[in-house]
Amino acid sequence: MEEVLLPIPKIQKIILNNEHIEMMLEETRKTYPKEACGVILGLFEGETAKAQEVVFTKNVAESSVSFVIDVEELYRILVQAEGEGKEMIGIFHSHPTIAKPSSADKPFMEINPVVWVIFGTLSDRIDMAAYQWFENVIHPVEIVVEH
User: What is the pLDDT of residue 4?
Assistant: First the structure.
């Protein structure tokens, strides 16, 4: 019997642990002013995305205000994740502005309707927010941090 892939449901919250947050903060600081990027692996449980691992990727974009994940690197990460029983539940990247999807993010969010965790670096304090493209609209996603 052929496996049927169901579309990703509307996600209400993403669960990250303190270590995930610290790692993303560190990657954001390390790559600044260029955008940091990576994927969040874990499982979807109903309307919740539960993170198990964050894998950082090289930003191959020419611009310092956008990000592009190398397709071959992403493929390797996803094949390994599948072998470990994980799936891509999110995409992480930083912005040189606020933690809100940019016009450049929107078309990529539409084709990757996972949770997008964005770290904004506009001020001295880095802010964080999450979003998902669902039914042609960008929805905020609650971030729950487990200790």
Answer: 47
